[in-house]
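Q: Please design a sequence for this.
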């Protein structure tokens, strides 16, 4: 058993999402969003190099020695599965281990909006799950794949970097391919997948123009494409796709979004009311004729109004979802305030008043206070 497994086991037992190891500081655990140190000495360079070296393959070690960061999956001695990033920094090396649950969570367990389950009923088009790093995008997509796997008879091809949740084929066939191991790039993976009789293609990240273009082609030609982007709202997602492709393809891209984009689900992870976990809170865009027209006429700044009024279609702004979760007493109102866009509506729920903006007293009031002292 690798020595690093002891830290990973401790983190798993504590219910943490990530284990951080870096030279010059003790090992740290990410617990419900907060980073907490383990009671251990500061890690030395030679010590951490030894820990990491025990779990790298020869090829990974060669790549790392050439200056590359590493992204890979690791299964510890007791069967725990982790997504790993190994990197170099000013004082040496560092590594982050993201814990992957042994069982794929269901959409119901994640308490996602019911519309997310309905998105799995589509047969073609594109569904995007977006958010910043560490907001649970991969978990949501894994739950969607699991739902498709259990309820439909499909050929599902998943392109990942690296493979996180492992899906056993049930009613569907699930083929998981890993960047760098099975495919040279996401774009090449999509190109190959389209020759493999797919019904569903999951693209781990739409990270460049070529991948976006290939994913769009797949969605237009009769496949259901699921993908992620590191964007923090539905509007920013649409703008990112339009801006990512060449100017001469702008009209074609807007046309694709209007016709083939089915939905954008943007999520954040907010502490639960009991402080014992975090839950996904989602902004949801469903494509409608009105939103399609706003995209084609480059008036995406008006889309939030459509989300606000589209409750009957399953749409909601992030602020609406946060306020509903506060009212249902499922999330910590202070943490919800941190994620809110228009914070004024959340101020009355905040329990830690130090978080609220400070308002200077008017000059007259200040003078009156001074004269009475």
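A: Design:
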């Amino acid at each position: 058993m690798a020595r690093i497994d002891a830290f990973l086991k401790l983190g798993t037992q504590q219910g943490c999402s990530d284990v951080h190891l870096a030279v010059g500081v003790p090992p740290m655990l990410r617990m419900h969003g907060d980073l907490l140190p383990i009671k251990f000495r500061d890690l030395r360079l030679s010590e951490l190099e030894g820990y990491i070296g025990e779990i790298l393959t020869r090829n990974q070690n060669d790549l790392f020695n050439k200056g590359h960061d590493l992204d890979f999956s690791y299964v510890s001695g007791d069967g725990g599965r982790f997504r790993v990033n190994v990197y170099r920094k000013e004082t040496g090396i560092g590594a982050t281990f993201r814990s992957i649950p042994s069982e794929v969570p269901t959409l119901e367990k994640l308490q996602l909006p019911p519309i997310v389950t309905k998105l799995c009923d589509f047969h073609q088009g594109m569904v995007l799950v977006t958010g910043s790093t560490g907001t649970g995008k991969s978990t949501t997509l894994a739950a969607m794949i699991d739902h498709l796997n259990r309820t439909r008879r499909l050929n599902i091809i998943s392109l990942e970097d690296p493979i996180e949740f492992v899906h056993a084929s049930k009613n569907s066939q699930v083929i998981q391919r890993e960047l760098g191991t099975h495919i040279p790039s996401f774009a090449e993976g999509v190109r190959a997948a389209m020759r493999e009789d797919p019904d569903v293609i999951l693209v781990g990240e739409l990270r460049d123009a070529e991948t976006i273009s290939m994913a769009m082609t797949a969605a237009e030609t009769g496949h259901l494409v699921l993908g992620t982007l590191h964007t923090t709202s539905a509007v920013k997602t649409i703008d990112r796709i339009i801006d990512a492709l060449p100017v001469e393809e702008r009209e074609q891209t807007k046309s694709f979004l209007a016709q083939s984009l089915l939905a954008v689900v943007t999520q954040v992870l907010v502490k639960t009311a009991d402080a014992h976990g975090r839950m996904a809170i989602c902004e949801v865009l469903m494509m409608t004729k009105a939103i399609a027209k706003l995209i084609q006429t480059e008036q995406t700044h008006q889309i939030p109004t459509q989300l606000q009024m589209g409750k009957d279609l399953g749409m909601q702004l992030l602020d609406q979802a946060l306020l509903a979760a506060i009212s249902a007493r499922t999330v910590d109102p202070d943490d919800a305030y941190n994620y809110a866009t228009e914070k004024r509506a959340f101020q009355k729920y905040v329990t830690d008043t130090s978080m609220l903006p400070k308002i200077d007293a008017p000059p007259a009031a200040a003078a009156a206070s001074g004269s009475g002292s």
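Q: Thanks. Anything notable?
A: The chain is about 35% helix and 25% strand. The first strand starts at residue 18 and ends at 22.
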